[in-house]
Amino acid sequence: MPAKPHKQLDTFANPTPRRDYRIHMEIPEFTCLCPRTGQPDFATLELDYVPDRLCVELKSLKLYIWSFRNEGAFHEAVTNRILDDLVQAVRPRFMRLTARFYVRGGIFTTVVAEHRKPGWKARPGPDFSALPAGASVR
Q1: What is the CATH code of the structural domain delimited by 23-120?
Q2: pLDDT, tens digit, for every residue of 69-112?
Q3: Those residues with Cβ within 8 angstroms of residue 48's Cβ, 6 or more apart along the chain or in another chain
Q4: What is the pTM of this model?
Q5: Most exposed among 22, 26, 31, 55, judged by the fewest C-beta atoms under 10 Å?
């Protein structure tokens, strides 16, 4: 039976919780609907996070992202909702979601939302908060 979209985000134990490391995911097929016109909005989502005790399981993330396909949402609202849901599921040390929406009416929109665990400071190494838009640490 084919998988169906759903809002449940599954997790698994961080295999290296003693170390700060960055997980980077690119999701190029995000879609939702414009709440005013009902027309589809397309975006590439970039998720960067430093896990604490949990990591997000990829298939559940795919099905979660798919669940927005027929929902109306403003760019700002859907970006923050996704970040909030991921933070609630994973409880990361740091998480940033960048949503790069494709042109609509001659305007590209990019929404960036962040979460930091209270008291968390990056250990020596890459400063995740200082990355310019579009930059990545690989």
Answers
A1: 3.30.1130.10
A2: 999 999 999 999 999 999 999 999 999 999 999 998 899 999 99
A3: 22, 23, 24, 25, 94, 95, 96, 98, 128, 131, 136
A4: 0.87
A5: 26
